[in-house]
Amino acid sequence: MTFPLHRPRRLRRDASMRRLVRETELQKNDLVLPLFVRAGQKGYRKEIGSMPGVFQLSPDEIEREVVGAREDGVTSFILFGLPTAKDATGSEAWSPDGAVQQGLRVARKALPDATLIADVCLCEYTDHGHCGILEDRGTHVTVKNDATLPLLAKAAVSLAQAGADVIAPSDMMDGRVLAIRKALDEAGLHDHPILSYAVKYASGFYGPFRDAAESAPKKGDRATYQMDPANAREALREAQLDVDEGADMIMVKPALAYLDIIRRVKETTLVPLAAYNVSGEYSMIKAAAQKGWIDEQRVMLEVLTGIKRAGADIILTYFARDAAKRLG
């Protein structure tokens, strides 16, 4: 006999009961706030047109942002850089005075106990917008994998020395976790963990980020190094390869169209798992809310809870401050 013996609504009758039996609990400590640092200016704070509420910030403005975020309950940040100049190799990525290096020092001084994550990639720093050393074959362009690894390693060491607690390579070059781990260890930075963008898809959801970071490729696309959105088993292989190379944490990016991937990676690896609630996912909610079509705050928390329910331990999201305030 089922009904009326079994009545699932008994456990939904009021807010207190629902809290008591809730299976997934989103917490402020799960959240990481992305920040965009622009070098070479002071007092610079420019809202990104395709990402309402998100700004390009000069290093001095980083202090105001992280202190405000801390008051909201956010204590973890990931920094992306906009350099003063770009070149073929992205050399400002490892400059001691690079955008992220400056931002890290400011953030560390303002919040000594914060967790600061530094994204490691070259696309924001190269004049062609790709994530490594470019090879132009006329009919198409590709990135030279092995020639890019030493540059990523140099950037990782520079960022760790500038104050990053966690190094997060997002380039999707084969072997970059091992190259970075070796470089960090050789520099005496043994205690700096690596959060690898192990499963990063060639997604259409990155458009607003490329506005924010000014990192769109000038020619071609990133399909030769980022993953095919149709593939799932490949994600498990990529994740395990990075763990084997020394990744302390791994990431799936994007999140919403890849909740099944988050779940499968969670079930097959033993390291902490992050998911990136990316710019396009953020901007779609913002745009629909501005039209009055959805309740932004409610949908925001529903999305973030869904990402955690799928298996994410850590969520990178532009909603971090708003969500933290709602979570209390």
Give helix % range: 25-40%
CATH architecture: Alpha-Beta Barrel
Q: Number of folding domains? A: 1
What share of the residues does DSSP label as strand, in percent?
A: 15-25%
Compute the number of helices.
11
Question: What's the quick description here?
Answer:
The chain contains eleven helices and twelve strands. The protein has helices at 15-20, 59-72, 99-110, 145-162, 176-186, 207-213, 233-245, 259-268, 279-290, 296-310, 320-327, and strands spanning 31-38, 45-48, 51-57, 76-82, 115-120, 133-136, 141-144, 166-169, 195-200, 249-253, 273-277, 314-317.
Lay out the secondary structure.
Blueprint: H1 15-20, E1 31-38, E2 45-48, E3 51-57, H2 59-72, E4 76-82, H3 99-110, E5 115-120, E6 133-136, E7 141-144, H4 145-162, E8 166-169, H5 176-186, E9 195-200, H6 207-213, H7 233-245, E10 249-253, H8 259-268, E11 273-277, H9 279-290, H10 296-310, E12 314-317, H11 320-327
Parallel strand pairs: 1-3, 1-4, 1-12, 4-5, 5-8, 9-10, 10-11, 11-12
Antiparallel strand pairs: 2-3, 6-7
Helix pairs in contact: 2-3, 4-5, 7-8
Key structural traits:
globular, TIM Barrel, 10-stranded mixed beta sheet, two-stranded antiparallel sheet, 328 residues, alpha/beta
Describe it.
The protein has 328 residues and is α/β, with parallel strands linked by helices. The protein has a single domain, classed as Aldolase class I (TIM Barrel, Alpha-Beta Barrel). Helix content is 38%, strand content 20%. It is built from 11 helices and 12 strands. The strands form 2 sheets. Strands 1, 2, 3, 4, 5, 8, 9, 10, 11 and 12 form a 10-stranded mixed β-sheet that branches. Helix 4 packs across helix 5 and helix 7 crosses helix 8. It is globular. The N and C termini lie far apart (42 Å). The relative contact order is 0.13. The mean pLDDT is 96.
